[in-house]
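Usage

Read records sequentially. Each one opens with the input sequence:
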Amino acid sequence: GSTAAITWNVSGTSTNYQATLTGNTTLALTNVRNGDYGTIILTQDGVGGRTLTWGSQYKWTAAVAPVLTSTAGGHDIISFVCDGNLMYGAYIPDVR
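and closes with the structure output:
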């Protein structure tokens, strides 16, 4: 998460991932197959206020993408499942 983009290479292995956002970032997934799933924990750095841009392959409840917690050190959890083309996401905001 130290650059403007995170590329999460799923490679057919459903996986979990953690990233600290140190700037405004774009999340991309590659090598995703039907049935693949994963969870990413996103943490704001000591500054906070970092944003994440979602690509068009992400689909959300009521078509509304989550807005990340902006608090320095805040955590958000995003889980995905893939249908072969689209990534369906669920969002758990920082509850600390």
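Summary fields computed downstream for this record:
- The chain has a mean pLDDT of 87.
- The chain has no helices and eight strands.
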